[in-house]
Write a structure and sequence with these properties.
Number of helices: 7
CATH topology of the largest domain: Ribosomal Protein L4, Chain: A
Oligomer: single chain
Shape: elongated
Number of strands: 6
Strand order of the largest sheet: 2-1-3-6-4-5
Largest sheet: 6 strands, mixed
Structural class: alpha/beta
Order of helices and strands: EEHHHEHEHEHEH
Distance between the termini: 21 Å
């Protein structure tokens, strides 16, 4: 697939051949959804905790006499029906993490990248000309390539200044190419990827599962 390469001003300067196994893979929506749900589940701490009636600190004495009051029979103030009592069937600490085979995870990334390329949401940038953190420069770059849309900036570890430049922008986020994930790729309107980052993507998600 021949794909246009843009400069920081938003003008096409060349074209590059995208590997078909990454950017022309079969788009499997179900697989993408499974990877997305897994990522959200793995991000949950699962530290929620509520106290049952056995964990409530309350007197064990009978609240009032058994007969003659006209009220229902009760023996403890820690019952769930009373204010301050325990919670019946409340959440307890648990592990929400889900497992997914490596080939399926890699397939989900390829499917997502292919969908972005097909729908015109992928933008290739010839080079990131930001030598030091500069929010204004990054805002101008995003406006030239994505307009008013939100953008995910995919860079390499060496392009540290570009990553920091996007940290203060509300409609943008930066990520290293080796940390690509389905959630971030689908969250933004445009995915702006530098050619250096593209080389990293080819090396990681190319053929050879």
């Amino acid at each position: 697939m021949q794909f246009p390469v843009m400069n920081s001003a938003g003008n096409e300067v060349s074209q590059v051949e995208l590997p078909a196994d990454i950017f022309e893979a079969k788009i499997n929506v179900g697989l993408m959804h499974q990877a997305f749900v897994r990522q959200l589940a793995n991000a949950r701490q699962g530290s929620h905790n509520t106290r049952s009636r056995s964990e409530i600190r309350a007197t064990g004495a009978k609240w009032y006499r058994q007969k003659g009051t006209g009220r229902a029979r009760h023996g403890a103030q820690s019952a769930p029906i009373f204010v301050g009592g325990g919670l019946a069937f409340g959440p307890k600490p648990r592990d929400y993490s889900k497992k997914m085979p490596k080939k399926m995870r890699r397939g989900a990334i390829r499917s997502t990248l292919s969908a972005l390329a097909r729908d015109g949401q992928l933008v290739l940038l010839d080079q990131v000309q930001i030598d030091r953190p500069n929010t204004k420069a990054m805002r101008g770059l995003i406006e030239a390539l994505a307009g008013e849309q939100s953008a995910l900036i995919v860079v390499t570890a060496a392009q540290k200044a570009a990553r920091k430049s996007a940290s203060n922008l509300a409609n943008a986020h930066s990520i290293m190419a080796n940390n690509l994930n389905v959630r971030d790729l689908l969250k933004y309107d445009k995915v702006i990827m530098s050619l250096d980052a593209l080389d990293v993507v080819k090396g990681i998600w190319g053929k050879g599962d």
